[in-house]
Design brief:
Layout: E1 4-9, H1 13-24, E2 29-32, E3 44-47, E4 50-53, E5 60-62, H2 65-72, E6 85-88, E7 91-94, H3 99-106, H4 111-125, H5 133-158, E8 188-190, H6 197-204, E9 208-210, H7 215-221, E10 226-231, H8 235-238, E11 248-258, E12 268-271, E13 280-283, E14 295-304, E15 313-314, H9 318-332, E16 337-339, H10 341-345, H11 351-366
Helix pairs in contact: 1-6, 1-11, 4-5
Bound molecules: flavin-adenine dinucleotide and uridine-5'-diphosphate.
């Protein structure tokens, strides 16, 4: 006899959505998390009335109607549109790469002029089939944009030379020949009014939740607590790193409250030169159009993951993908465990993709 149908390891979006779906079908769920709060990386901390995205800026965007309808059951979203700016030395550019960026970069006005310059720079670089991030970036936006807005940022973010990184990372960003600074192409976008915590609370309603609880200690003491496990921790840690370590990028957040109502005039400002040690500064109040008298900013410093620090970004290069495939094969043999989420699948997933994956896993499991 088990006390629970599911032991859900991790209270981030994957675990919490699975818990909601299972609880709604009358299943008993125990959700554990090693952190002292629920919500995983979407957790917000309230500082002087401002919802601070403690684990980095989280902007919800999706083209998946099912996911959009689903999250709207648990929160109302505002009309925030992400339009970051990039600072390179004394120069400031709009992102993503669009006519505003090209006009500022080259003093031109029309898409034809921009395309002509980019085509010339691609031809000069002699790239036919891009093999890595550098070649992919140059063949999309030309060498000037690559040198000023991509190279430094990417090498800080990933701690690797752009020629050693997979091309797909840069394909995440839209490229447009219109004057449109919207960072995403998705049909729906916004920030939940009141932050992400109320969504997580509603998803976890009806589940038992234990915080400050690490799976690997807990399971030794309670080996038969649940019939099945949903594991959203690190895939390689589950198997005791038996095939070797998967690599991750971590981020150190330096957060401070400042006695001004508006520090940088935008939620997201990227610093794209190698000389500035942080990748970006987030000013959290702008996500919810806050009118508070003070402001809270976070500088993000990217770092290689070491045991004891937080894993954030899987590094999907060849070495890690090959290793991840071997771990996924081990995982597939575990019929008693469902592996999910960014850490459990070693995938660079956005929130909407994690929610879609959790809904799918729940459907496959629960019908
Ligand atoms: P997580 O949120 O990481 O949750 C996993 C949970 O498992 C954690 O709470 C962890 O403490 C717990 N856990 C791990 N191991 C154990 C263990 N052994 N025992 C107990 N508990 C354990 N997506 C977007 O769509 N838009 C964005 O703007 C965006 N910005 C991002 C910015 C950053 C810096 C990062 C890192 C990610 C961003 N994402 C964004 C992606 C988004 O965070 C993820 O898609 C989503 O939060 C992943 O949810 P998850 O449940 O898989 O994992
Ligand atoms: N990127 C860049 N310059 C920028 C912003 C992003 O070169 O100013 C590159 C960088 O390699 C980054 C990738 O584009 O890893 C994806 O950016 P995104 O903003 O999607 O990163 P995330 O939100 O996942 O940190």
């Amino acid at each position: 006899m088990y006390s629970y149908d599911y032991l859900i390891v991790g209270s981030g979006l994957f675990g919490a959505v699975f818990a909601r779906q299972a609880t709604d079908r009358g299943r008993r769920c125990l959700v554990i998390d090693r952190r002292n709060h629920a919500g995983g990386n979407v957790y917000c901390e309230n500082i002087s009335g401002i919802n601070v995205h403690k684990y980095g800026a989280h902007i919800f965007h999706t083209s998946n109607r099912e996911v959009w309808d689903y999250v709207n059951r648990f929160a109302e979203f505002n009309n925030y549109i992400n339009s970051p700016v990039a600072i390179y030395g004394e120069e400031l550019y709009n992102l993503p790469f669009n006519m505003n960026t090209f006009s500022k970069m080259w003093g031109i006005k029309t898409p034809a002029e921009a395309k002509e310059i980019i085509d010339r720079q691609i031809a000069e670089a002699g790239i036919t089939a891009p093999k890595n991030l550098e070649e992919q970036a140059i063949s999309l936006v030309g060498r000037d944009v690559y040198e000023k807005l991509i190279k430094g940022y990417t090498e800080k973010q990933w701690g690797r030379d752009c020629r050693e990184l997979p091309a797909f990372i840069i394909k995440r960003l839209p490229l447009r020949f219109t004057y449109d600074n919207n960072y995403f192409n998705d049909r729906w976008q916004g920030i939940p009014i009141g932050g992400y915590n109320p969504i997580i609370e509603k998803l976890l309603e009806g589940s038992q939740v234990l915080l400050n609880t690490d799976y690997f200690d807990f399971i030794k003491e309670h080996p038969n607590i649940a019939e099945k496990t949903v594991f959203t921790g690190m895939l390689d840690e589950f198997f005791d790193y038996s095939l070797g370590y998967l690599q991750w990028r971590s981020v150190r957040f330096e957060t401070e409250e400042l006695p001004t109502d508006n520090y940088q005039g935008n939620a997201v400002v990227n610093y794209t030169s190698k000389e500035v040690p942080w990748t970006r500064i987030i000013e959290h109040k702008h996500f919810e159009f806050g009118q508070q008298p003070t402001t809270v900013i976070s500088r993000e410093y990217s770092a290689e993951w070491k045991p004891g620090t937080e894993p954030y970004y899987p590094i999907n290069d060849e070495r890690n993908e090959t290793l991840a495939e071997k771990y996924r094969a081990l995982a597939a043999k575990r019929e008693d465990v469902i592996f999910g989420g960014r850490l459990g699948q070693y995938k660079y997933y956005d929130m909407d993709k994690v929610i879609a994956a959790a809904l799918e896993a729940a459907k496959a499991e629960l019908g």
